[in-house]
Amino acid sequence: MHHISHLALAASLISSALTSPVDVTGKKTVSIADIKGKKTFSVEQVLAKKQQMQAPALSMLKTYAKFSGTAPVQLKAAAAAIQAGTVQATPQNYDMSYLCPVSVGGQTLNLNFDSGSADLWVYSTLQPTSQQSGHSIYDPSKSSTSQLLVGNTWSIKYGDGSSASGNVYADKVIIGAVTATSQAVEAATSVSDSFLKDVNNDGLVGLSFSNINTVSPNQQKTFFDTVKSTLALPLWTANLKKGAPGTYDFGYIDSSKYSGKITYVDVNSASGFWQFTADGYQIGSSSTVSSSFVAIADTGTTLMYLPSSSVTAYWAQVTGSGYDKNQGGYTFPCSSTLPDFNLVVGGNKFTVPGSYMNYAQISYTTCFGGLQQNTGLSFSILGDIFLKSQFVVFSEVGGKASLGIAAMYNGTPGEDDGDEWECHAAAVQQKELETWKMINQEGGEMKVMHRREDAGVRHTDLQAAALTAASPMIAAEWLFDRYKVAVDMHKALQSPRYEYLFFAWSQSPQSIMSEFISFLPPPGLALANYDSAALHSTQSPDVPEVFRDAMSVREDVFVKEQKVALENEVDVDDARSFHWVAYASVGTSGSDGNAAMDGVTKDSATSAEHTGRKGSTAMKLPVGTIRLVPPPHPPHPQPGSSHKIDNHEGLPQDMQSGLSKTEMHDGKEAYIKLGRLSVLQPFRGLGLARLLIDAALTWASQNVDKILPPMSPAAAEQRKLELGGGVEVEDVWRGLVLVHAQAQLEKYWALFGFVKDESMGTWEEEKIMHVGMWKRVEFDSESTGGRKKSVVG
């Protein structure tokens, strides 16, 4: 079964427009019209194929050279001693190295995303063969889209004598789901030994500002500058981690990756770097020191380089530490417990845990510090030691560069946050609670998520109100009118604007077809002419709209993000399945209640829906879906097998064979199967997956006869032919549910009460490993109508 990927791409952009970058520019509101049709994507790091680390002194010397700094004499001497073989060169117990896969001219290279440089350069076949060993290389001759930029060259020369240079091509570069069709690719013809010794990567993707790009005579744009106009928002984020792969997200901010608020500071882009001013620091629980200094955020640098006063103050707190001239930096006893380091930015403190300050073990008892002096550099550098403990936003929203920092979210990966956020309802300010009223009529439960942007502070409140089963729109109108909060936008707007985002789900069977979640019974012959090789937007209008909406989500999550072949996404089970689609309603209203959202009308957006309220416009967009496949089902997949789709019917006979029973299934009991659970990236972490699962299982428990109607003689005969005869099956569903879960999401499904069936082993669907997991839904047995087993054959 396909599933949500927490590091996957996003196609719906609405919540991106409601995240903190919207209000950091002080110039304009980003509306739906601004981002309609634009993109977001996420890139997950991969473990470097070779884990080899330079000695700290050599790494530091490289940083000084990169930024044309004057390295201290002791550092130069330490590096020389290491290169001469008199000092140990390979540290132990260091953090792992992670890179990002990038397609360059159809060839995949693992590159380092570097916010401290502006060149996209790669190892290539233009280099001597001796320099190509150990790297994936770019071959321009194998790319059908490469074009030599005649007369243009690039050259990086550092103060330590290291260098790299070569020719420049325009070629197709794909990162995530975004393509730069004519990106400047700097193909190396020669690199110095210091670069060759870095076997961890195949080149760099520079993410600083284009004004320091080294191509001559025609300076080129960075990848980000090339694609930012196509993104939902012109920003990217770094969510790097210690000892684990991190992610870079482009075009949106994933609110599940940080906690608290994002603090933004202005960036001096004229320097070419993400340069800003820090306010001071705090060591452990000691007093805060107010001492401003200029720093850059650099994903291409490992250590933290700060003013000498802060560095000496830090290491003074660690017994046995000190400056080691043989190593060119501060060292300490590995047995030491290091204090936290708090950096003050924008008036807020951001903590680097003491454990992160241990860069590497350089001897049996001695470790090298992750915090070093910036002596000889023109600014301080916040490298990975800092960045791996924070969530960082690199923003150019409104044409103004800014850097955002927030505490990294430390929750359990894959954990559903709906219940946690629901508990926060009690903490909503009293003035907001006064706007809530209970609609005391019969009906189901409406769950509403509201995000408020207020002077750069993100608030998330979850409330519940009774929903009138007969008239769900009454509740929707009431919420639209009553639950709106001004976006201050740093007081820059002439008049306040209101932005709202809410989701609702009705548990009541009578109102399951509501404004916010739609239910579709098995579409049957309505899908007879569905073209599986074509996108949902091109399908016949005879295809139910709810199914087309479900496919819009599935195409974004499974086809675009998880690379499932489009023609395999619709299968034979879709026609006989029950489907649910969750929608988000998003819009704005002027302070007088009469200003509709910029550029959004029913004519300009096919998914736009007017709420009927004067002066208001709301867009209804599909953001999540799930399907329920009723019995019967083919045999369970064989452990170790591989399938294009998760339904075996219609496949060659040798692929239909599988387990007739498992440790958790006797091979006879009827069961339902949940599948195609998917939520668009910007809407994850809001509890929508839980709502969709609950919606499907609640409906199933209340509609047993619709899941498995009694078999007619003709149906029994047909089932006999399907199963080969002589097979006893139940014609009543007793609550057993199966999911084919992606193996890495086993713990996620366990949150919903599903248990792994060890006897099913693992198998491959669409090149993704899966496991079988079961759950039994409890319900009133009388609802089965007293039906009994049917014997087929």
From TrEMBL:
Q: What species is this protein from?
A: Aureobasidium pullulans (Black yeast)
Question: What exactly does this protein do?
Answer: Secreted aspartic endopeptidase that allows assimilation of proteinaceous substrates. The scissile peptide bond is attacked by a nucleophilic water molecule activated by two aspartic residues in the active site. Shows a broad primary substrate specificity. Favors hydrophobic residues at the P1 and P1' positions.
Query: This protein's superkingdom?
Result: Eukaryota
* Family matches, as SUPFAM superfamilies: Acid proteases (SSF50630), Acyl-CoA N-acyltransferases (Nat) (SSF55729)
Q: Which Pfam families match?
A: Asp
Q: What is this protein called?
A: Aspartyl protease
Q: One GO BP annotation here? A: proteolysis
The record's annotation in Gene3D superfamilies points to: 3.40.630.30, Acid Proteases
Region annotated Disordered sits at 592-661
Question: What keywords is this UniProt entry annotated with?
Answer: Aspartyl protease, Glycoprotein, Hydrolase, Protease, Signal
Task: List, alphabetically, the InterPro entries matched.
Answer: Acyl_CoA_acyltransferase (IPR016181), Aspartic_peptidase_A1 (IPR001461), Aspartic_peptidase_AS (IPR001969), Aspergillopepsin-like_cat_dom (IPR034163), PEPTIDASE_A1 (IPR033121), Peptidase_aspartic_dom_sf (IPR021109)
Family the entry assigns:
Belongs to the peptidase A1 family.
The transmembrane residues are none
Query: Bias category Pro residues: which stretches?
Result: 629-638
Please state every residue range assigned to the domain named Peptidase A1: 98-406
